[in-house]
Amino acid sequence: MCGHVQTQTEDVRSVGGPMNDQGFSRRSVLRSAGAAGAGLGIGALGTGAAQAATPGAAPAPAQQTAAAAPPRRGKSMIGVPFEQRSTVRVGIIGLGQRGGSMIDLFLALDGVRVTALCDPVKEKAERAAKKVTDANQPAPALYVKGDHDFEKLVRRGDIDFVYVATPWDWHYEMAAAALKGGKHVGIECPLALELKQLWELVDLSERTRRHCMQLENCAYGQNEMRVLRMAHEGLFGDLLHSAGAYIHDLRELMFDPEYYEGPWRRLWHTRMKGDLYPNHGFGPAANYMDVNRGDRAVRITSFGSPSLGLAAYREENMPAGHESWKETYIKSDMTISLVQTEKGRVIRLEQNVSNPHPYDRLNILGGTKGVFEDYPPRIYLEPEMSGHEWGDFDKYKDHDHWLWKEHANPPGGHGGMDYIMLFRLMQCMRLGLVPDFDVYDAATWSAPVPLSHASIKAHGTPQEFPDFTRGGWRKKREGIDSSKPEE
Fold first, then answer.
1. Mean predicted confidence (pLDDT) in 405-416
2. Is residue 261 very low, low, confident or very high in pLDDT (cuts 50, 70, 90)?
3. Using an 8 Å Cβ cutoff, are 169 and 190 in contact?
4. Euclidean distance between the first and final Cα of the chain, in Å?
5. What is the H or E stretch that residue 347 is in?
6. Cα torsion at 37, 327, 191, 9 (round to 10°)?
7. Which of 39, 59, 193, 297 is deepest in the core (most CB within 10 A)?
8. Shortest CA distance to 349 belongs to which of 216, 465, 448?
């Protein structure tokens, strides 16, 4: 299935911002229920901690198996630039709400041409194709013949970059197909849901010499990039802790048959207990701490609340006989994880989409000279501030990243971060630069999905993070806090 979309942050109906969740084919729901639903046991997730855990038993030691790296069959992708090109030719897989809106931003960028589109719902592909021709680009090739027509798209010779905006079940398969087809690929989060799949994508990226990237838009938010630059300039002193989250009440959307073409998002709450969507919080926090660029995540311990929210919402809103009454929800309503880095720093991650709560990503950074907290943004730095009174974060606008100084009012959703992310990625591809993020970041940011599930199942037993860089994290290097290139 070419999928339609994958969820990200705010939705226009729930928090007043641009929508980002996406549609889905019921054919993929059936696929998910059979293959993924039955196969996501602890063993499939790549760690055995929970298997040994029994009530009242002493906690098992952190698992070494999760951290062990398989033999490298290629070369590291750290510091590998794109091939320089005057025009980036893009193929898009998934044209639901996310893919169907992101195509507008691809078409708004100079030096980008959309050459192929894929979605099993023909009407969605045709609607997106009209946007391409309305932008005075040649009509794109369409792939609408079934769930696996994307396999033909990734083999085309006129595509440089494949963008995947489909339900989570398909991310690994589509990313792998794109890499094997010789294409750079960007995937909506999460990259994959099993440690084995994450390692396989690392391996494929290294062997094919093509970049496999997590398109984490929140890392390009104006506040996130400003705080990142301030941290690198030493304004927070020595960094100690950070926090990130995805707290977004999605109950109405997960039960809305018009919003999703199937219950795929809700079905994940019947399969896993852990943090299903860590990337929006973990990506920015990892950037602050220079994870994979001088520090690394070494272990995670997670706890989860009871799973009550979706069942309560169903009780109040779903009629008898609705398909959801056959579902048993096991995902913790609130998951709280602590990630420790090699340098001893701590990152707190939270996720909750099943209870009433205003939208929140936390976005906290603390050090020996002060702290920043978002939602609403506020800051306390010494020696500028004292008396336990928060300061005005707007006074630090001069620390904005050059991307936000040059694009003060970017188009598109999520406050412009989507546009900033795509602009920078396409710029790197056109100029032949090293990307701001790579497959090691993508794998690291998604690893809390299986690891948090395993830790919760094991009563909070710490789980070791794989070192996807195989030691490459020790070298300091640029990331999203990039230098401005010469065009």
1. 89
2. confident
3. no
4. 39
5. strand 346-352
6. 180
7. 297
8. 448
